[in-house]
Amino acid sequence: MDKNNKIPFDEDNYTHNINKSNERKLDRRGFMKTMVGAAGLFAVSTLPWGSIAATELMGLREKKYPKKEIIDVKKLNIGDAFEFAYPTDHDSALLVRLGENEYKAYQNACTHLRCPVFWEQSKSELVCPCHHGFFDVKTGSPTAGPPRRPLPEITIQVEAGKIVATGVKRYET
Q1: Global confidence as pTM
Q2: Which of 14, 27, 118, 142 is spaced 20 to 30 A from 77 at the CA atom?
């Protein structure tokens, strides 16, 4: 370059308008190396999150749920339902007493768009009022409407006259 920061000869590779120093260092090859390096760095940095997600989605690890007392057996009549929170305070659930010693509990969110599900005792079914989805109370399977997946079931047991939630069954396809 001359003292005016110009190339002193004719150049036909269209780089004669480059006036800044170090501007020629980032050519196509340099750019591709930078992109491959950035992609590699991104892949390595997201690897732990990917393995956690794969473990969770494939069900390779058994989740631990706390035991939680729901209600006293004497307070729930046959045919009645009781709403509670499980496994966290933010997860709504619904317990239905079907018989003398028969109980079913499900997470209270429709598998279509997560609207709350209600117990309709006269028809013995769980109803999602948002899009008219219906679920079988004994299995949690959808019987009508847009939901295609069953409601996640909460495992329960009776201990010393109280109904206790012990876990959530995994969704099975």
Answers
A1: 0.68
A2: 142
